[in-house]
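User: Hey, quick favor. My workstation is busy. Could you predict this chain's structure for me?
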Amino acid sequence: MTRQRLVTALLALGVVLLFALPLAVDGGRSAYVGSDTQAVTAIQESDPGYRPWFESVFAPASPAVESGLFALQAAVGGGVLGYVLGRLRGRRLAAHDGAARTPDDTP
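Assistant: No problem, here it is.
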C-alpha cells in the first residue's frame, strides 16, 4: 500500500469515527431533534391557539424518507455549485492561457 493510499484511508476512517463515535458513546439516550421541531414545540407552548399559515404540499411518510430527500437536495446543490465553480475556473484559466500566447505562437 502506498503512502498516499494509506493517508486517504486514515482520513476516511477519521471522518467515519467523527460521526460514529459520539453516537456510540451516547448509546441512544439523547433525543436528537432538529431545530424545526424545537421551534414548533416552542411556538405551540407559548401560544396554544397557534395555527400555521399553510400546510405542506408534500409530507413524507417517514423521517427516513425526509432525511433521504434532504440528502438528495444537498447532493444536487453541491453538484451544481461544483459545476459552476469548475466552469468559472476553466474560463479564467482559458482566458489566462489565451492572453499568454503571442501571435507567433498560434499554429
